[in-house]
What does this fold into?
Amino acid sequence: MNWQNWLLGALLLGAGTGGAGAESAPNQLTEAERAAGWRLLFDGHSLRGWRAAGKKGPPRKGWVVEDGILKKVEGVRGGHLLTIETFDNFEFVWDWRLPTQGNNGVKFFVVEERGILGHEYQMYDERRGGNGKSSTGAFYDVMPPIPGRKPFHVREWNHSRVVVRGNHVEHWLNGQKILEYELGSPRVLEAVARSKFKNVPDFGRKVRGHIMLTDHGSEAWFRNLKIRELPPTKPGGRNAS
It folds into this structure.
């Protein structure tokens, strides 16, 4: 990785995250981040805090840690990677990179008892084809990102953010808010009813669940996975982020 790409990733990480990543080296926290309640979900060295979906321990293949990067290995199906912990109100940020034709995603509200399903923040090289509900930053197969979303960069580092506070959810990409919705609202439930998740219990409603990095077979790189837990509402009772 050259220094220009590293600098771009650092700048993107500081944008729109309430301080997460500002002036911090990869996979580390600043004192300001710690004071704001941030913690690492990936230490840059191991899969500590993660396990294979449906298993008690980490996957035996398909995922490796190299040079401070968590890598999904091309063509090696090791299964999905879940946080050991579960979350309900949180702010989660991560850097990611895909190859040409790459396909991956980050899911949250993952409940294993209903089939390793959750709300997926899609990560996808749109030159593969597909519509708005399968484009990068979408709530996969349910809701597309906003029209005119800024382009992202295949083969370069991108920065994403998900905020869940009460029933309010936001998706961010490279410093731009690209989608927001209210869990359990008619808008969301009607969109779920038109999706492949229409028969999944409570899909589109608030649940407590794991965060998951998906294994769709293609290569994907991750770093700077950070999270902070939030109160369900802002001071004053507002339910937005």
